[in-house]
């Protein structure tokens, strides 16, 4: 070897985060319940779970009365729950080291903090809405990466929502109208109890997505009703495609002020334009509208929101038309979908300014390695990116992203695959005599 030659570095390993089968989630929360609450409380009434989500497109549009298009991750949060005979709430999580405890007397906004606010906050919101919910013990485990902008918070809230719903016989999860009430309770938990002013996309996805489908959401009238939440068949596998998710491991938090700052900028822009929300802007007259704004930052924020709503409408049309025509992948539509994803990311980077170097790098590396389209997903400020890739390219795209992160000296990312999956529900029924698995 000649002097000064740098030996080739071995490629970094690619870390995959697999989804769990229901049995793993059930066993984990049941065992944790035995260890933590054991003999003095008895068995839980069951196990419930709810998924995280990937938003295909339509970012920072929900709180602007716009459009979003999420799918549910196969990765879920599991909860075993048992009503207690008193007014205490005790929660244990495999992601935490200590019991999270409160009482109904103490459970109110501003008086509690920590991860339990997302869970107990749902119980509080249900009681505020007039439902009979008492004390309970619960254990939690999650396959949804935390703080990765894949809706670990909504998965936690929605798993608790369906658990409390059946353990206290509220009967809401059985109907779409009832599920909408649960979404509202989860959103209140997040907005009022946890203090994150988020917009409702994540909870709708976790409560309404179905396997093999994307969920077209229209927030024009607020939380979408039956007409404004449409399931659209989304058969990626038939088109030879998959969604590769990259958890950039750049820490992400929605309670740190940046998200609220973006939301406020949109609200102020709407006020100065004399409209109720940015949804009212006609895309055809966007340039004239932007000229009437004096604040250059508001110009960027508004341009993102209006163009993103348009891109989402186009993407929904593409998915609705189908990615397969006459038995073959429809390359024109697939290319169009990829281009819309790319434009979405660029707008979030340049105009909405919610990307970070790690998510930009993950997107650039995915595109360079052959992804058809790539973008950040979720709130941003760190978190995850997604790439639309041909199945035969998945390993190469993941390896390229891992290599680029290693070269840049960033914490190694993690990878997930996300076939469109199902909504929050029950996994295990426990009664005096038997346990019955509900999901495979
Ligand atoms: C977070 C929020 C959602 C939505 C997205 C951005 O996930 O919880 O309500 O605003 O960010 O699209």
Distance between the termini: 57 Å
**Overall residue-averaged pLDDT value:** 95
CATH class of the largest domain: Alpha Beta
What is the count of distinct domains?
2
Overall CATH architecture of the largest domain? 2-Layer Sandwich
Largest sheet: 7 strands, mixed
How many beta-strand elements? 17
Structural class: alpha+beta
Rounded to the nearest angstrom, the radius of gyration is: 22 Å
Give the helix tally. 12
- This entry's quaternary arrangement is single chain
**Share in β-strands:** 15-25%
Helix content: 25-40%
* Contiguous runs where pLDDT drops below 50 for at least 5 residues: none
Question: Which series of helices and strands comes N to C?
Answer: EHHEEEEEHEHHHEEEHHHEEHHEEHEEE
Specify the overall morphology: globular
Biggest β-sheet: strands ordered side by side in the sheet: 6-5-7-4-2-16-17
* Bound small-molecule species: alpha-D-galactopyranose
Explained architecture:
This protein is α+β, with helices and mostly antiparallel strands and 440 residues long. The protein has two domains: 20-233 and 422-435, Ribosomal Protein S5, domain 2 (2-Layer Sandwich), CATH 3.30.230.10; 237-417, GHMP kinase, C-terminal domain (Alpha-Beta Plaits, 2-Layer Sandwich), CATH 3.30.70.890. Helix content is 38%, strand content 21%. The chain contains twelve helices and 17 strands. It has helices spanning 22-36, 38-41, 116-128, 152-167, 176-193, 201-208, 258-273, 286-291, 296-321, 331-350, 357-368, 394-408; strands at 15-16, 46-55, 67-68, 70-83, 88-93, 100-103, 136-142, 213-218, 229-233, 241-247, 324-325, 328-329, 373-377, 384-390, 414-417, 425-430, 435-437. The strands form four sheets. It has a seven-stranded mixed β-sheet with strand order 6-5-7-4-2-16-17, with helices on both faces. The protein is globular. The N and C termini lie far apart (57 Å). The mean pLDDT is 95. Alpha-D-galactopyranose (GLA) is lined by residues 55, 59-60, 62-63, 198-202, 254, 378-379.
């Amino acid at each position: 070897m000649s002097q000064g030659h740098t030996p080739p570095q071995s490629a970094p390993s690619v870390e995959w985060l697999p989804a769990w089968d229901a049995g793993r989630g059930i066993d984990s929360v049941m065992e944790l319940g035995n260890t933590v609450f054991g003999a003095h409380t008895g068995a839980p009434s069951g196990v419930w779970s709810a998924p995280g989500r990937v938003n295909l497109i339509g970012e920072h549009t929900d709180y602007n009365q716009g459009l979003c298009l999420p799918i549910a991750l196969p990765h879920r949060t599991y909860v075993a729950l048992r009503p207690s005979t008193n007014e205490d709430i005790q929660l244990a999580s495999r992601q935490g080291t200590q019991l999270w405890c409160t009482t109904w007397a103490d459970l109110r906004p501003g008086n509690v903090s920590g991860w339990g606010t997302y869970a107990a906050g749902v119980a509080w919101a249900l009681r505020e809405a007039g439902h009979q919910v008492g004390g309970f013990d619960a254990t939690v485990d999650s396959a949804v990466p935390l703080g990765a902008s894949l809706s670990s918070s909504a998965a936690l809230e929605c798993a608790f929502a369906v658990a409390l719903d059946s353990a206290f016989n509220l009967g809401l999860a059985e109907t779409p109208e009832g599920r909408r009430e649960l979404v509202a309770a989860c959103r209140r938990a997040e907005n009022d109890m946890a203090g994150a002013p988020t917009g409702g996309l994540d909870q709708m996805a976790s409560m309404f997505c179905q396997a093999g489908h994307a969920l077209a959401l229209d927030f024009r009238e607020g939380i979408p009703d039956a007409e404004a939440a449409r399931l659209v068949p989304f058969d990626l596998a038939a088109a030879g495609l998959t969604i590769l998710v990259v958890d950039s491991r750049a820490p992400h938090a929605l309670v740190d002020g940046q998200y609220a700052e973006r939301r406020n900028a949109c609200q102020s822009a709407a006020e100065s334009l004399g409209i109720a929300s940015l949804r009212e802007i006609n895309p055809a007259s966007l340039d004239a509208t932007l000229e009437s704004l004096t604040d250059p930052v508001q110009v960027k924020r508004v341009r993102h929101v209006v163009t993103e709503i348009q891109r989402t409408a186009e993407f929904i049309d593409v998915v609705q038309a189908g990615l397969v025509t006459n038995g073959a992948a429809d390359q024109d539509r697939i290319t169009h979908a990829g281009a819309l994803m790319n434009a979405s990311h660029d707008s979030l980077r340049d105009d909405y300014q919610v990307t970070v170097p790690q998510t930009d790098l993950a997107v650039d590396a995915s595109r360079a390695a052959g992804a058809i389209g790539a973008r950040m997903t979720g709130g941003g400020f760190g978190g995850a990116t997604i790439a639309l890739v041909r199945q035969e390219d998945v390993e190469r795209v993941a390896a390229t992203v891992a290599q680029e992160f290693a070269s840049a000296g960033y914490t190694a990312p993690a990878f997930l695959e996300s076939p469109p999956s199902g909504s929050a529900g029950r996994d295990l029924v426990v009664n005096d005599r038997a346990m019955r698995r509900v999901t495979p």
